[in-house]
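DM from R.C. (forwarded with permission)

"hey, sorry to bug you on a friday — could you get me a structure for this? deadline for the figure draft is monday and I only need the backbone to look sensible"
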Amino acid sequence: MNGMNNDWGMGFGLGWIIGIIVLVVLILLIYNALNKKRNPQQWHKKSLRDILKRRYARGEIDKDPN
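My reply, with the result:
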């Protein structure tokens, strides 16, 4: 009878750990999803060269420095 109590206790303890890990992962996923909607620029950082290329392609700037 003592062996059954130890086995059940170990499984119960492991279940709590797995449950906490799953809960933390879900909270992090929800947090990241909400932050991505609030600040999309943070997730899609562009280099200065990319910004300049796009502005040049749209005709907003030209090569002439003067």
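R.C.: lifesaver. The chain has a mean pLDDT of 76.
me: no worries. The CA atoms of residues 55 and 61 lie 6 Å apart.
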